[in-house]
């Protein structure tokens, strides 16, 4: 993808997330409606120092969670974890604390397939991630609690 096209895609995706998707997930969360398609990631704002929450897709295991920053380190939460890797992530009804680290050597397409609710949907899940990303990087969150 060209740099110009990636930058344009990033701006469009950021606006859609900021003004459409993120508010919709917040409203549903306040109403008590949870989805397996998204959970909340809480980071510390790199400039403000306050808690920042953003909906993300996550694949949980016994030791932590995988998330994909679709726009790499230039996403807001990506920049926040670069400044302070301590995070909280909601696993069902429970908030888990952990440490996030970038895993640039991870195969993002293969990782996206693991986010599917059923193996039959793995290809569709990976294609959806590809459609929304500009500079994807996997992030591993290791639980501290």
TrEMBL record:
Gene3D superfamilies the UniProt entry points to: Electron Transport, Fmn-binding Protein, Chain A
Alphabetical list of NCBIfam families matching this protein: hi_GC_TIGR00026 (TIGR00026)
Name this protein carries in UniProt: Nitroreductase family deazaflavin-dependent oxidoreductase
